[in-house]
Amino acid sequence: MTADVARAMATEHGVCIRPVALRRIDTETGRTEVVPVACGSTRQDVCGPCAVKARTLRMAQCREPRAASREPRSPNASDGARSTPRPSSRPRGTSRVRQRAGRRRERPGSGTAAAGGEADRRAGL
To answer: What is the domain range of residue 41?
Structure first.
């Protein structure tokens, strides 16, 4: 069977045309086997059957958004409470970063009067 015929049959039956070969090892017996897994491509030009499956899955997810009643809740959360606590203080070093950002660095030759005076003294003027 040629590659074109196999690709046409796979597309006709809705099977991935570019399966990824994964090796599975049985930990009890040590036996190894290769298992083909669908590529999962979302592009039609790469793998049409996988792209169609991904498109129908996205459409179903958009049609039925995850309901709040199905959301996992923490056991101690009350209505309107955050499930993850907010940090009580900023991370260390945040204030230093902001202080440095607020300061302007003075560089020699940057056009400031102090820098210009120093350059004049070096030149002997």
So the answer is: 3-66
